[in-house]
Amino acid sequence: MADSTTLFAGLRDRNRLLETVVFAVTLALVAIFSLTVDGFAARGNLSVILSNSASLCILSCGMAVVIISRGLDLSIVAVMVAGATTYATCVQAGLGGGMALVVTALVITVVGAINAWLIAFAELPAMLATLASAMVVTGLFRFAILQGEFLILLQKSNPAVQILTSDILPGVPVTTVAMMAALAATWVLLNRTIAGEVIYAMGDNFLAARLSGLPVRPVTILIYVWAALMAMVAGLLVSSASGAVDFRTVTNGTLLFDVILVVVLGGIPLRGGRGGLRNIILGVALIAVLRNGMTLMNVTTQMQDVIKGVVLLIAVAVENFLNPRDIETDTVGDL
Amino acid sequence: MTQAPIIRVESASKFYSGIAALEEVTFDLHPGEIHALAGENGAGKSTLCKLIAGVTTPSTGRIFVDGEEVSFANPKDATERGIAMVFQETSLVPQLTVAQNMVLGREKPLNSVRRVRNAARQVLQSLNFKVDPTQLAGSLSTAKRQMVEIARAVLNEARVVILDEPTAALTPEETDHLFDLVKQLQKRGVALIFISHALEEALNHADRITVLRNGRLMTTGPAKDFDRAALIRHMIGDDLVETAANRGPARARAAAPVLQVEDLRMGSMVNNMSFSVFPGEVTGIAGLIGSGRSEAAKVVVGHTKRNLDGGRIWLDGKEVRYTAPSQAIADGIAYVSEDRKYDGFFDTMSVARNIGLGWLAKFRGRQVLMPKERLRSVADHWRDRLAIHGAEGGKPVVYLSGGNQQKVVIAKSLAQEPRLVIFDEPTRGVDVGAIAEIRRIIRGFADSGAGVILISSYLPEILDLSDRILVAKSGTIVAEFARDEATAQRILHAAIH
User: N or C: which end of chain B has fewer CB within 10 A?
Assistant: First the structure.
């Protein structure tokens, strides 16, 4: 429960070895980029890395919770865009920032709850249910609100948008605060609440969780609503910074891939039941540094995709090598 | 036994993540002998067999076949040396026919369906099996599947056959048939190793017995030199007196049943099953595997929600119908699963977290945050009360022995303070020492005034623990015996005929 041990515990614990490797690779990349890439170690670049990775980190907070419960949510990027669209529509209709946020949160909660209903009550596999709902949500919002366009503008001069791009304290933007808040909330959920304990139990052995009488259905709803709300926050930050909601993020972007990359690289196994906040931070740190460094080195996006794909393959292979299935499934009683 | 051993394992050790499953064990198998491996769960029996069959490789030590040192990279290498292993969970492919399964892995580039079938039929007939080679393996009973695996070994001209707990899921008749077969193979000059928990099987059927404990070799010798007490002494270290639970005279029965089930029907497994359970009693349900006992229990607790075709259930006189186990648990009914690894415990979690989750399921109320102090005391209480060992340092349950794992599952349910617990095969895959303890726990729970349903395929267990014995057959209850009128013969007769 309490993972107070240091990262270097990984050297002794096979399950933690991947984390240690990722941590070491991140440090090595920081060192290499600082020495070889002009401007990487600059003070300004640090805050660029922080604010650029904020939305990735918030999305990963949602996805990590889902994956620890042995689920998967492929709809988060669609939900992210849907949330921003709703917010933009409300703001254009003249609603204040607070009211617009409440309406958006309600809409997104419903979307998350529908995902959860499909998984917990209709008992569809999470991957298919969220893949389908991602299509439905994207199509519906583009058709109903954008009338087929793929962009909806967010007036940067509008106070409801301005507040999202401003600094809370000098030098501390809302984005960074939102990221910290998402991390803190995820930590509380996973480590301090009963729901968090049930999430780990579901990831460990869903059938046992159900048979023990744990509230698997209510917690499933919580999980997918949580992921949807995290996606909403990320969506608001991204689109207010760029001044537009862009539906091409869903269809063309690699954001969903990046989020899964963060979770897996951070050391949260897709079979669930393990991992925590430390893993999210670790994964985000590696991807953020990698992305930033490659961009500064003028690596093309296509090449960046190749590198990220290779990194994911290596991580999965290392994970499989460290935790081979037979040791995982063998009980001592079977030895 | 003056011949050279066909297999010799020389001071072999095997470590899993630093834990020794086998330590410095030396083992000989002579041609044509039946060799029983005895020992508690986790004693290293299966590990030793896996080394011989090439499933794993020894960390240190050497293996010889016909006096020649070998190092098997995989089971196929072992098969080529004439060594075949029949696993606890059989390894047939359910979608293939019996004949296809028998040649699996040794197919020629072009297989004639007819030739394969005929070869399979010939072997099956020579062994006196009544199995159709064209049948799908998935449609066979456990016993028949095992026999097909043995036939496969014969077809592959195995000289050594290893049987890993072959009788765990068999009825007494099927067990007899199996040992007939074992003797037949022996006559053909095949050497056999079998692992068994039933001490009588080792004593009655083996030529030699080897006893392992905690991964070490305790003793090995001719079967006639052992008796039951000696065997148990070697297995667990000191004399464990196996006594029937001392229960005194039968108590007066409570007036009203805690649970009443009437005409329960579900799919093809449960047909008009009716029974009652009284508080303070252990109600044993005997029967063959597949007689619908577990299925009925799962319907009662809401584990199975589909295909309910009818029937009524009363708890304390109030009609209930659960669609999820959480509802049954809220009302005080718990089901302790027959397959703890599948749906019993959380294997990467500690003992304390497992027990805590059971408590939370019932008593969390409207709390949002984890009541850590409370959970710790609940977990400590049940861990001590059930004497669960190996929980030090928050070790995951997966590293515990079978007996301790089973106690964790029971503790998780008892922490919910239920008034009725259904124990489904509570001592399956549990070591001898823990079996006695688990039986005491079950008996003590009933004596405290709660209702207990005990589903077990092991007759002595049913006879030993139950106040009343029901016999299930083809999804219905066909007989009921009071404690003093029940005998093994009468129960078996009702269960089979």
Answer: C
